[in-house]
Amino acid sequence: MRGIGLLLAVALLQIASGQEQPYVLGAGDAVSVQVMNVDEFTGKTARIDDSGSIILPMIGRLQAAGLTVAELTTAITGKLTTYVVKPDVAVAIVERRMQPVTVSGAVKTPGVLNVPPGKTLFEVLAMAGGILPDAGYRVRLTRRVSNGEIPVAGAHPDGSGQYSVADISLKGLEEGSSAENIPVMSNDFLSVPRAELIYVIGDVKRTGAFALAEGQTVSVLQAVAMAEGTLKTAAPSKASIKRVAGEDKRVNIPVDLDKIMKEKAPDIKMQAKDILVVPGSAASQGALEKTISTILAIGTGTVIRLY
To answer: What CATH code is assigned to 30-95?
Structure first.
């Protein structure tokens, strides 16, 4: 995919120019915490547990997941001021764990991936083989609240209050949007929904399946425009729509494109999974019927995404 190459190039440029984002701590990471002249912290190592916390002398349980090393240092310093005058705190990462991240939906190889720390959303989608042609226009990221809130606009807690959820534009990721291409964290769940499709086949310039944006509706004339118009050999007055009418059943809806284009008949709104058929010469009718049968059986054709 062109987007994968573009974003990887952007990522490499960011790293080379020192723009790489600070590492965000998560469950499974181990840190050393040293406090000058405080024996309780001599050689002290703590591992972040599944709740996102570490347990330290004098302080007790402290939230660490979702923080950078600098932020955790500040938090520890603040807690210790009750017991130590001007505490001199040094925090360092001593072990980074591979992070399990689940990717589901319209990707080539969905499943649980073991992801190195610091990988971004787009890099994880690439690790899952990339998005499929019939993917929708967003990816939904679900993250445990213990790992911190998702740092993108529109992120919100789910109904349980245990997870943070955000819908992120796939277009933004493909174009190298650094604001939304955030690092993943342990136990993140990425879901790429499949798009609703309509099909336009027959004597048109661009046959295939067209991916609709969420909530988008199109009319017959708009569908023909997506297909870049009809060919000279087309018989637009004999067009039709094959529409789902129950499980494994479709109805045939006659469509006179000539009358619609001349405003002598109303433009018809298409529905998801509709197949607009624009017939042509009798010689191509056999191939057309075969294409319809294949779509009805398994769904096929080149999926065209319209950003």
So the answer is: 3.30.1950.10
